[in-house]
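Quick question, first post here. What does this chain look like in 3D?
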Amino acid sequence: QVQLVESGGGSVQAGASLRLSCGASGRTFSPYAMGWFRQGPGKERELVAAISWSGGNPYYADSVKGRFTISRDNAKNTVYLQMNSLKPEDTAVYSCALDPHFVLTTSPRYWGQGTQVTVSS
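> Answer (accepted):
Ran it through. Tokens below.
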């Protein structure tokens, strides 16, 4: 069993920055890909960013390109999401996901509990 724990969420003003972290523990097997999803009030869950085992060619949703950066530290079994120039529409619960594959699939196997990000105007 793999356990994922997110941290770094909070309440900020528009234009501010936050960095989310997600640490994995338990029975992790290499390679594995990780990513971040979010679900805002009254909205569907969407994939925000994903990163492969190697860290190459990360994926970003069009709504966050140029503002968010995903990275990982395999030695620490941790993935990060640096969020800059935050907008009110970024308000959501952000959840970390992990797949025991080189790249993230459309249905990740493991999920964290989520961390709240609130952006006020």
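The mean pLDDT is 96.
The two ends are 40 Å apart (CA to CA).
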